[in-house]
Specification:
It is built from 5 helices and 8 strands; from the N terminus they run ααβββαβαββββα. By secondary structure, the chain is of the alpha+beta class. A 6-stranded antiparallel sheet has the order 3-2-5-6-7-8. α3 runs antiparallel to α5. The longest helix has 30 residues.
Length: 180
């Protein structure tokens, strides 16, 4: 062996019995760090793409579920705040199917704030809201609140999401047309 003979190591070999020279080790560790960092960045980007992909409101209810809707108009009359509520309790299976089809046409998205939203509290509701309550065997399983706000915020199961404001207003109007 060249180590025991006292000769100089052949090119590319280290005087250390482990194999690599210190420059080679530094380059190897640097490549390893760059590859690890690249893998982490790609994983974060993939998670971000999946997290922010459009979601379908139609996934929140099935054809056999019972849907109840409450429409509210908010405002001020003669200096007094008011809320006019109309409850739609007896929605037929045909109406439910039509509503589910509409819900599938209007995607919504998570926001960074969705992770941190609590109790579904949003400000600036606009002058109209529409809440859909989905029941399975008498138990509330999902709740969706749409607003006429320009912020585009909607509440799904007490979490705040985003939908295009024009789509949200259109969806509210179309649902009301179906159930009236």
């Amino acid at each position: 062996s060249w180590i025991s003979s006292g000769d100089r190591p052949p090119p590319g070999r280290s005087e250390r019995p482990g194999g690599m020279r210190s420059q080679d080790q530094e380059a190897f560790h640097m490549k390893k760090r760059v590859i690890c960092l690249a893998v982490i960045v790609i994983a974060l980007l993939a998670c971000g793409v999946l997290y922010f992909q459009p979601l379908s409101l139609s996934d929140l209810a099935g054809e056999t579920d019972q849907v109840k809707i409450v429409s509210r108009e908010l405002g001020v009359r003669n200096g007094e705040a008011y809320i006019d509520s109309v409850s739609y309790q007896d929605i037929t299976p045909e109406q439910t199917r039509a509503i589910l089809a509409l819900l599938g046409e209007h995607p919504y998205r998570r926001t960074v704030g969705t992770l941190f939203s609590k109790n579904g509290v949003i400000s600036g509701l606009g002058d109209k809201t529409l809440s859909l309550y989905v029941y399975d065997d008498g138990s509330l399983i999902n709740e969706v609140s749409l607003t006429s706000s320009e912020s585009g915020k909607i509440v799904v199961n007490e979490k705040v999401y985003r939908m295009k404001p024009a789509e949200q207003k259109q969806l509210m109007e179309q649902i009301l047309e179906i159930i009236r």
